[in-house]
Amino acid sequence: MTRNRDRHEGPESRRSVGWVKAQTLRLADATNPLPLEIGGSIAPVDVEYETYGTLSPAKDNVVLVCHALSGDAHVAGWDADAEATGRPWRQRKPGWWDAVVGPGKALDTRRYFVVCANVLGGCYGTTGPSSTNPDTGRPYGLDFPMVTVADWVQLQARLLDALGIPSLYAVLGGSLGGQQVIEWALAFPERVRKCIVLAASARLSAQGLGFNAVGRHAVTHDPDFRDGNYYGQSSPDGGLAVARMMAHLTYLSGKGMDDKFGRRIQDGAQAGRGFNIEFQVESYLDYQGRSFVERFDANSYLYITRAMDYYDAALRWGDGDLVKACARIRAQVLVVSFSSDWLYPPEECRQFSMALMRNRIPVNYLNIRSDYGHDAFLVEAETVERLIKGFLTTAPPDTTASRCARKGGCTQC
Amino acid sequence: MTRNRDRHEGPESRRSVGWVKAQTLRLADATNPLPLEIGGSIAPVDVEYETYGTLSPAKDNVVLVCHALSGDAHVAGWDADAEATGRPWRQRKPGWWDAVVGPGKALDTRRYFVVCANVLGGCYGTTGPSSTNPDTGRPYGLDFPMVTVADWVQLQARLLDALGIPSLYAVLGGSLGGQQVIEWALAFPERVRKCIVLAASARLSAQGLGFNAVGRHAVTHDPDFRDGNYYGQSSPDGGLAVARMMAHLTYLSGKGMDDKFGRRIQDGAQAGRGFNIEFQVESYLDYQGRSFVERFDANSYLYITRAMDYYDAALRWGDGDLVKACARIRAQVLVVSFSSDWLYPPEECRQFSMALMRNRIPVNYLNIRSDYGHDAFLVEAETVERLIKGFLTTAPPDTTASRCARKGGCTQC
User: What interface predicted TM-score (ipTM) does this complex get?
Assistant: First the structure.
């Protein structure tokens, strides 16, 4: 177990993709709006995305990365436009998965053309609740339509179409990004060769729904929320900070927190004084809350957590039966869970893998021992990098040969 | 496993203690203030408490119950003064541990004299932040001094003195109540014969500290909080509701929530509509938040969770060494943890038991299989009742005889 998240390679490093610039494409307009899963459609839709590496002449080297709840399209390298686009925090560190994407890394940019797009409803350049509603000329706010994981994947497919990319060599992501990977495998079975699902299952648990609900409650009951019409005024930072602090607790494990913070008192603080920050863990959570509100829009938090709530692969593709749903999948799949993850617990990731196995889809399932909880998919970068590299460079197994040869069927496969 | 929490016996039932009335005693005044662990003292201090059963002539049948964070002294029976004291919610159900306290129950009121007192800093009649500060004539608010688990136990000892009770046959409680039991065993070793610690350990984990911190953050950042001076005005209900909703998630287990709510949609709701209540789990949490603010004071929530944070038996009595701390204990101890409790996980309860064993203190440790999480100490009433009954009616073992007879010492005990 090695913590790689904080090991930054500078933009000049041989292993960094260096300075990068996001691009934006209009992928839906009045004549070609984007239909939405829950109903209706939306236009215009602009998508901000980044790419790393070079598209091969055969266009067969494309890897799509799907970002998680608070992630973005800035996966690797250093944002050349950080200042110009008002995202100063990007000057302090490279993209969120820089440990995995770059020359010689698992997603080797000398070999693969890596693409990542900001999700619909987010706040990083792709159309979202802070964008202008063409009907009113003002920001959408809560008039933004409800969007889903399926919509995100449809929009990513439009992006690939626009870039002239017929199919993906691989699609991968962790957490909510992993759910997009599952949806890719289901919605476009012929367009995906390999899928990597990290720390994600086919649907969120009741406990996960509960935490999302409390986080949204904190946002929507902040007096500055004003039914989502807070743009140009004070924003519901207090509520959003509480939501983020709480969510952060679900990203860590009890053991991991005991190891990292224990009951240690913050430097300069004195225990027993009252309600200010005293324990180190309080300081950590406070920082997470404060830094998040600087870079995230409260309305986007509502929409994205709701999309996370709604995603249910079995319901969408198999009338509630996950095995039936997975029958559509044609890709080779790698599923990785982490032992101390309680947001997407190993057992639920295993259930998804089992549904694949029952359809004789080639799947590798690994449960990695880690004390980093859900965050392990980012923190255990060395392990994850090794697994991705191995999976992407191995030819898919001959699924015909792997079929069970027992006469009269087998209860185990 | 039987859920007994919602099985109410009416006040006329043979197994109910019937109608009860709380009593109040002034236990500290200007001439005899209560010294506080962290420093200073407080006066006056009034304590509201309830008793059930009859004190024996020998005064040897007293059982003290210690309540948890949001509990109170109204342990059993029906509050005859519910309306008069402005606590209408007590008209709907009996005391919080009615399943355990009453004629023929584990704390058999035909045999034991059961006492429970509201904690200092709370909001149920015992002096707290909503009480009048004698220095200003106004409610204390955040001028209320910081109080600790140790202070609560000292005040409970004063109550026993006032009632002429020299010692306790038993003291018991769950969660934060269980931590009071541990402190009783340590602070008054000669005054306690039997201790029952349910779903509690000798200190809160980093994760527990984190959840408390986020809950307090939600309260103190509510605009209605006004630095705690909200009495007579709108109170920070929004923040307190968020704190309670989140805390409730820590009282349940993932498995328990999947069984109870799953991803089911609330009757009358339609999925995919937005940010109102759709899933059953959202409805449940919303109810928990709304009902809590009707009956709890936000400042008390701050003080009590902080006391929970601060309690560390090893630090207080053993320079950080729990085995050394526990050497003081003379009582026979029963420790019960619950397999799916992640607020006070079984492993931490076991560690406390091990510290007792290493001191050759007679201890029974049981980890009960349950999917009810931390709440199991209340929900698994039948199991808990049986354990309490057995433990209270069994003579303590001859500790001399149970000493290890191996020559040269034994590495296992």
Answer: 0.93
